């Protein structure tokens, strides 16, 4: 898998799923839903202001009235919509939860509710996939949106979540690069200590399903030539499939740099809950939302 075009095709071959969309009264959200139904990727439960949703569909997305793949459910406000979306997953009506025109906080409040939420006991983490023109391949970045300053044990679970998504998307033995500013262990830089610990845990079978090697600076993680010039060896150097960042700030900068400087396509899911969660920005394009849906559909299966 190296392009979103192929990933969307892969999603179309999976067992059909239903997606619960929280606060669906949004043009870009409905455009993504329309694109997904045209490709027969999924069915949708559209939750929110039912009149606004129906009016938008009638005015701009009439194909959704004809294909029989969407139903609407009314919710009086964002909190109620989030609760209904999470309940649809808990009741197994839906296999994917999708963020619509709602802020992240009320959606996650419903997801993380102790009795009525989607918690599994694992850390929830953001897994983004970028199709990067500069390196002519796709690469995962985690965690750029959920965990602010993860400690070592949280990083173990963040790696596990990303590896699980990679497996579902067809990467059988992903290469994980814990990123730092340097390639050597420095006692004064916690990111390098954690990277070394993760590498050793992988070698001793405590982290499985992947190859972990670090610390690696970004250039040595993705460029074989840079790794060669700096004499950085190992199975991951220059060939990383998953970039593990040390903090949310580093992840956010890398995420947005790939989008705005690197002209990369992106899709993203929240992993570690009872079902994949499509948690795109409200400003993301319909194509990015479709890419994320494809990731979630493949992850759900």
UniProtKB/TrEMBL annotation:
The entry lists its GO molecular-function terms as: acyltransferase activity
Could you say which protein family the record assigns here?
A: Belongs to the phosphate acetyltransferase and butyryltransferase family.
Please list the residue ranges annotated as the Phosphate acetyl/butaryl transferase domain. Answer: 81-297
Supply the name of the protein.
Phosphate butyryltransferase
Which species is the source of this protein? Answer: Jeotgalibacillus campisalis
Ordered alphabetically, the record's keywords are: Acyltransferase, Transferase
Please give the InterPro entries that the UniProt record associates with this protein: P_Ac_Bu_trans, Phos_Acetyltrans/Butyryltrans, PTA_PTB
> PANTHER family under this entry?
PHOSPHATE ACETYLTRANSFERASE
Query: Entry's Pfam families?
Result: PTA_PTB
């Amino acid at each position: 898998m190296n392009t979103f075009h192929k990933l969307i095709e892969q999603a179309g071959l999976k067992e059909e799923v239903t997606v619960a969309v929280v606060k669906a009264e949004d043009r870009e959200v409905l455009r993504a839903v329309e694109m997904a139904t045209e490709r027969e990727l999924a069915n949708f439960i559209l939750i929110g202001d039912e009149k606004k949703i129906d009016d938008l569909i009638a005015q701009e997305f009439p194909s959704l009235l004809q294909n029989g793949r969407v139903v609407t459910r009314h919710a009086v406000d964002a909190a109620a919509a989030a609760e209904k979306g999470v309940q649809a997953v808990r009741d197994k009506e839906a296999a994917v939860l999708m963020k619509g025109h709602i802020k992240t906080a009320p959606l996650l409040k419903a997801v993380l509710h102790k009795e009525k939420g989607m918690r599994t006991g694992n850390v929830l983490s953001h897994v983004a996939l970028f199709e990067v023109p500069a390196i002519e391949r796709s690469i995962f970045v985690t965690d750029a949106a959920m965990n602010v300053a993860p400690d070592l044990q949280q990083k173990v679970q963040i790696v596990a979540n990303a590896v699980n998504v990679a497996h579902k998307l067809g990467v059988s033995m992903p290469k994980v690069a814990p990123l730092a500013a340097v390639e050597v262990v420095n006692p004064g830089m916690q990111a390098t200590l954690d990277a070394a610990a993760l590498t050793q845990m992988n070698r001793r079978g405590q982290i499985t399903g992947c190859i972990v090697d670090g610390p690696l600076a970004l250039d040595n993680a993705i460029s074989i030539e840079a790794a060669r010039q700096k004499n950085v060896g190992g199975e991951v150097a220059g060939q990383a499939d998953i970039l593990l960042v040390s903090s949310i700030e580093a992840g956010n900068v890398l995420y947005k740099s790939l989008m705005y400087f690197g002209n990369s396509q992106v899709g993203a899911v929240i992993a570690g809950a009872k079902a994949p969660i499509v948690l795109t920005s409200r400003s993301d394009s319909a194509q990015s939302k479709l890419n994320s849906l494809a990731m979630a559909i493949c992850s759900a299966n």
